[in-house]
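Hi team,

Filling in the usual template for the complex we talked about on Friday. All components are listed, including any nucleic acid strands or ligand strings, so the model treats them as one assembly.

SUBMITTER: L.P.
PURPOSE: interface mapping
COMPONENTS: two
RESIDUES: 604
SEQUENCES:
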Amino acid sequence: MTMAGVADSLLADARARIEREIDATFDRLLPVPDDARARLIEAMRYAAIGGGKRVRPLLLIATAGMYGVDRDSAVRAATAIEAIHVYSLIHDDLPCMDDDGLRRGKPTVHIAFDEATAVLAGDSLHAFAFEVLADPQTCADPFVRVDLARALGAASGAHGMAGGQMMDMVAETAEFDLHTITRLQQLKTGALLGAAVEMGAILGKVPHDGRTHLHGYARDIGLAFQIVDDLIDHEGDASIAGKAVGKDEQAGKQTFLTLLGAERAREQARLLVDQAVEHLGQHGSEADLLRAIARYIIERDH
Amino acid sequence: MTMAGVADSLLADARARIEREIDATFDRLLPVPDDARARLIEAMRYAAIGGGKRVRPLLLIATAGMYGVDRDSAVRAATAIEAIHVYSLIHDDLPCMDDDGLRRGKPTVHIAFDEATAVLAGDSLHAFAFEVLADPQTCADPFVRVDLARALGAASGAHGMAGGQMMDMVAETAEFDLHTITRLQQLKTGALLGAAVEMGAILGKVPHDGRTHLHGYARDIGLAFQIVDDLIDHEGDASIAGKAVGKDEQAGKQTFLTLLGAERAREQARLLVDQAVEHLGQHGSEADLLRAIARYIIERDH
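RESULT (copied from the run log):
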């Protein structure tokens, strides 16, 4: 097998295993109760189980794996961050937000259930994430658990993902320059991707001054990820993407693509991924999965 | 001064001080940034600062006070639980939920701003709560911080407040008996009121087996609080309540009131408050504020 072939197979195996593990954890931690809350839990399960690229769990588990973290701990923390991602998708898809009907190849939660249930299912997955992290089963060390919660809270609130979503809404009418678009994307997508890597490092008890290269890696793949998302929205096929495409252009939204053009945007994404891989230079083969994830990010079509 | 007068003044002083402290903490922790996120933070501040009964902060700080907890710690934890309460009000008021235009005497967030901003402001306050709890400034002991996050997560998600809201939605069309309505209210309102008391006990490092009476107190005032809410919705004046009234009846929703009638409901609330106060029998004057809060809960008109 070629080197690229080895990396592909490493990534494919890791993805398949992590998909099973994340689905199994959601399934175990979200049993459907025998009362009027059943519909809420069913909506949470509908959105959380099956489908999705599981990029954040992959990043978290791959980072934790470099530092010998117990697999069950990493999977629980990965399920928590994926719960945050899923809640943000449910709320993003609401009629008052992006008004999307298709997500991960199936009707969005407010279509399959109803809007009120979608709001509550998102809110419940949000709380679920912190419940999972705070549980001693995630890690016996309370320092680690509370630091995981801190990192996830910071990455998902007004100074992270939600703040980026707000800027994204403003971007539909405002004139943003490349600096502001970069900042927007660092918050909207980058913060949570960065938290995935950071949470892996927290579980691995990597000291703060030993994480600089990981921050660099996460920052670069975060931006590359968003540029590729823009390209998929521009050129992609809804049936492959599993969600509506062409929405940014319809909304007249400024993105990396409108500012750079497709060719330069693609080049920039490649550059960022090369740079991300360089950050891992101090690591040997234990970082191969993180390297393969970086490559996957620009090669994906959905 | 009479005994009742002393209790009134104790409560009035505590409320005034806590209102100032909670407002000041939100103000300090939510500075408006000089970028496109400004609108989001302004919406969070609009909903969180000024107004509201601050019942959850009162309960948390009163409980923590019994155990000599550092005031700054208690105020930070109280701000976190109030942030969860405020986020739930913002989302509850959305057109797809209760569709309310008035809250705390002013237009709801989706009216004063817009629906998408309201969704994001709620989500951001949700994350903010866990960020605040996880911060070492809340308490140096990581065990305490992570236990606060655990308690708040459990009380606000599908097995707490959000689950109760789901049951409440189902209650508009289903036939619920008194047992189910009680369960609904224990989740919808009782869980977060209970968490306020529990978080005070966590900060006070009260051992689990020393909290039974506090759980009893919290459970009883939680139900009494909801019965009084139903009575205010039934008999209240929107200008005093600061929110729309008469909505339950319009929606044909079953409540304690429809099942018990106003007279028996009021009697039941009084009974619960007496019972709540009895749970505090082992405490001396240090529990006077909790006793006064219990009395206030049935005497309030909003």
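MY TAKE: The two ends of chain B are 26 Å apart (CA to CA). Residues 3-29 of chain B form the longest helix (27 residues).

Thanks, L.
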